[in-house]
Amino acid sequence: MNFKKQFNEGLLTKNPVTVQLLGMCSTLAITTSLFNGIGMGLAVTIITICSNVLISALRKVIPSQVRIAAYITIIAGFVTVVDLCLQAFLPALAESLGVFIPLIVVNCMVLGRAEGFASKNGVLASAVDGLCQGIGYTVALVITCVIRELLGSGTFGGGLLNGGEGIRIIPAQFPAMQMVMPVGGFLVLGFVIAGSQALMKYLDKKKKEGVK
Amino acid sequence: MKTNENIVKYVLRLALTLFIIGAVVAACLAGVNSITAPAIEQLQYEKTQEAIQAVLPGGGDEIDFTDDSGLVSVVYKGEAGYAVQVAPGGFDGPITMMVGIDFEGKVLGISVIKHTETAGLGAVAAAKTSAGEAFRGWFVGQSGSVAVTKDGGSVEAITGATITSRAVCDGVNAALDCVAKMG
Amino acid sequence: MAQMKYYYELTVSSSPHAHSPVTTKTIMRDVLIALLPALLFSVYNFGFRALTVTTVAVASCYGFEKLWNILMKKHDKTYDLSACVTGVLLAFVCPVTVAYWQIVLGAAFAILLVKMLFGGLGRNVVNPALAGRAFMMSWPVAMSTWIKAGFGNAAAVISPVDIATAATPLANMHQGMMPAESWLQLFIGNVGGCIGETSAIALLIGLAYLLFRKVIKITIPAAYIGTVAVLTLLFPMGNPGFEWMLCHLFGGGLMLGAIFMATDYVTSPLTMWGQIIYGIGCGALTVMIRYFGGYNEGVSYAILIMNCCVVLLDRIGRPVKFGAPKKEAAK
């Protein structure tokens, strides 16, 4: 097990959002305020860790012919637990994420990690993988959120800071509303992906120069 | 070649594994639900009460009602009057809102609970901004029936969102009619 | 590296080595000339702010393209005037009360994101000016405030709070009512609306000039306007039906869109059948958005949607290769 490699993959080189392009539905839909991004990211991280651990523990018990059905049942169970807990204890977040919490069941990232990693690796490694991929997902979401919120609403930390209003950075008449509409989601995601590619290229180049 | 017995065993194993996983997950969910259900119910009750309080000082309790418009979903009666929950069709789906009306048939205030109007235009009707408060303020003290200025009424429509403004008027009218029938 | 810069000019190609006086620059200059009558009318209709808004749009489009070329170290082709055409068209589809910073941001979106990011002129998928307008719907109140037409009203433009606003003909028609103005008034253009869209006659003069100079063919405008005419005549929402049709043709941005935007070389099909289907598609979508959509006007979105279909429409009616069997060429 190589924690550093897994972390690097989750955060950058195999980032679920910017490289694997998984879980696009929630990424594009909810990234309109910092609160949403952090909340969604944490919910998905917790669910990925839990489902990874359980699926890894059961990987020798579950027959491969019915594995997808079994995985989805387990994932759906965890998602429903998280959904109920959010509704009961964090109603503000549950309301703002709405239908996208139950939709984590079909978030390809969770099933992707179950099928691609947890079903082939040990419990501890799977837990670490869930954590790293979850962090990568959260970071990508939060970056998209911050950009969209700043350009579209002119605030920072909406739903979290300043009593939920967010700290106003751009006066209210200037922000471009389209950036918090669906079209802004696609635009900003494109630039975030381009940015992560540029960063990877830069790091590669630096590494090669270091070797020389 | 598998014998018949083997095939039966194999299918049973698949079914049993799935069944056990499903049963365990269901049991866990039942456990979680028993913890969270009361909390969720309590929160929903508080939220409804808050919405009633916003338009009807002192709150109120649910009563029976008759409604011809088909827009009224619940009516609450309190010491200051009625709070009527209506859901007129807006620009993009229903606008769920609460209308407070006193015993003389005058609007005490309106508040939008849930909507899917366009951000920046129709959404102003629900916004906690000065423009939103100004729009909702037009309804306070009105009685009989209301309409936007374009339709000959006294409510100044939201800029660029006449349809939303008309829908809110429809909702208020339905609430006023409903209360008028109570006598 | 210095030699590399002019490398492309030394490309040797096979014959024929024909030289044509028609270049991108001459075409764009003709388009600009064709837009002049509408610009002059807009100044008469809305006052001098129409001119300053257009100037700001042109200057910022030109400036952003130049800036991009300098920053990205690309060969600067701003002399081809295509950015100026985008600028004029962007201003023409905005209300005269639009703020200068809004139109500068709209120009930035149109030029940087829609045009240059895809590789510059000839490679953009959708019409930059219309995409810029779609982006400027970010400020919905500013983009749907219409002042009353008339030169005198223009003085009030400096303090946009006190302007006399009026419902545009399209807003009335969206509600299923005949507009307050007669169709003749709409034809001349003495009504509220976007800067360059109000006067059908001025735009038709532009069309005549473009046809005379052979810059565009009549195919797309005819298919587009014809479809709108047929659909609104068959399904009128106001009486009398013929006048209803004329109001749909001359009110709103149909003429501007059909003549100057749907005919954009880059974002329209090349083959005749492709162009006809493209025009019919634009017309049908325009009427559908005007009848059933949330917005009063559907021209800009209709053209943007059909722009995205051009890559498919270009496969229709390709000329058969000389000597090739007919079936194969159709593929």
Outline of the structure:
The complex is a heterotrimer of chains A (212), B (183) and C (331). Chain A has helices at 3-13, 24-30, 34-57, 67-89, 91-97, 108-118, 123-152, 182-211, and strands spanning 155-156, 167-168. By secondary structure, chain A is mostly helical.
Order of helices and strands of chain C: HHHHHHHHHHHHHHH
Instruction: Give me the CATH fold name of chain C.
Output: Ammonium transporter fold
Q: Runs of chain C with pLDDT <50, length 5+?
A: 158-162
N-to-C span of chain A: 28 Å
**SS summary, helix count of chain A:** 8
Strands of chain A, count: 2
What is the strand content of chain C? under 5%
Q: Largest sheet of chain A, if any?
A: 2 strands, antiparallel
Query: Could you state the order of secondary-structure elements of chain A as H and E?
Result: HHHHHHHEEH
Give the helix proportion of chain A (percent range). Answer: 55-70%
**Main sheet record of chain C:** none
Strand content of chain A: under 5%
- Poorly predicted regions of chain A are none
Helix content of chain C: 55-70%
**Structural class computed from helices and strand pairing of chain A:** mainly alpha
What value does the Rg of chain A take, in angstroms? 18 Å
Which structural class matches the secondary elements of chain C? mainly alpha
Radius of gyration of CA atoms of chain C, rounded to a whole number: 21 Å
Structural features, described:
The complex is a heterotrimer of chains A (212), B (183) and C (331). Chain A has one domain (3-211). Helices cover 67% and strands 2% of the residues of chain A. Chain A contains eight helices and two strands, in the order H-H-H-H-H-H-H-E-E-H. Chain A has helices at residues 3-13, 24-30, 34-57, 67-89, 91-97, 108-118, 123-152, 182-211, and strands at 155-156, 167-168. A two-stranded antiparallel sheet of chain A has the order 1-2. Chain A is globular, with a radius of gyration of 18 Å. The two termini of chain A are 28 Å apart. With 183 residues, chain B is an alpha+beta fold. Chain B has one domain (1-183). Helices cover 44% and strands 19% of the residues of chain B. Chain B has helices spanning 4-55, 130-137, 162-182; strands spanning 61-63, 72-77, 81-86, 89-90, 93-94, 96-102, 107-114. In chain B, the strands form two sheets. A five-stranded antiparallel beta sheet of chain B has the order 1-2-3-6-7, with helices on both faces. A two-stranded antiparallel ribbon of chain B has the order 4-5. The relative contact order of chain B is 0.13. The mean pLDDT of chain B is 85. By secondary structure, chain C is mainly α. Chain C has one domain (24-313): Ammonium transporter fold (Orthogonal Bundle). Chain C has 15 helices and no strands. Chain C has helices spanning 24-46, 49-71, 82-92, 100-116, 128-136, 140-143, 169-174, 183-188, 200-212, 219-234, 241-250, 254-261, 272-292, 299-313, 326-330. The longest helix of chain C has 23 residues, at 24-46. The radius of gyration of chain C is 21 Å and the shape is globular. The interface between A and B is medium-sized, with 23 and 20 residues.
